[in-house]
Amino acid sequence: MGMIADERRRLADLVESLSSEQLRTRSLCEAWTVKEVVGHLVAAVAGSNGAALLLLVRSGFNIHRANARLAAQMAARPAGELAAMLRANAENPFRPPIVGYPGQLTDLQVHGQDIRRPLGLPHDLQPERLRVSLDFLVGGRAVGFVPKRRPAGLRFEATDLDWSWGSGPLVRGAGEAVMLALTGRHAAFADLSGEGVAELLSRTK
């Protein structure tokens, strides 16, 4: 929970540092701008449950469509307000089912890179937090993050962390790139090497 709270505060600092043009930049989540990604992360802890349920109903119970609409609604607020909401909810103890706190931490780290990479900003990820997310993504509980078949039969090695997992054709690279590739971000594949990279890429299409 302490890691999550700190990541929310760091994201708030980042949001306040961005220009209007940067906030309008297309993120690695291709359907969302940088500001809409921030809106999604704010909505996860600061949105009204009743409003979220109503949007889900109006979206035909399609959770991805409802999520996109909720993110867009949040993103209509001023950036400073979104940053303030992140800080106000930094220590919000909400624990989502199945994915739990590791899922929340991973959501913050992955979406943080969805923002930073297109803007050419350093990732500034903390090794111990990145390790938690890598363990989560290959651990079978990452519902909505990684289909179970995606990492199956492959070996992953982080070149900048004491972390590896699996057996089979190798996928090797910095922990940040491995995390993003596991979650289907094609922009990270250029930073990977090994005979398993092509197979992993084929599983993200």
Automatic annotation (TrEMBL):
Transmembrane segments: none annotated. It comes from the Bacteria. It holds the Pfam family MDMPI_N. Keywords: Isomerase. Residues 5-91 form the Mycothiol-dependent maleylpyruvate isomerase metal-binding domain. One of its GO terms (molecular function) is isomerase activity. This is Maleylpyruvate isomerase family mycothiol-dependent enzyme. It comes from Actinoplanes aureus.
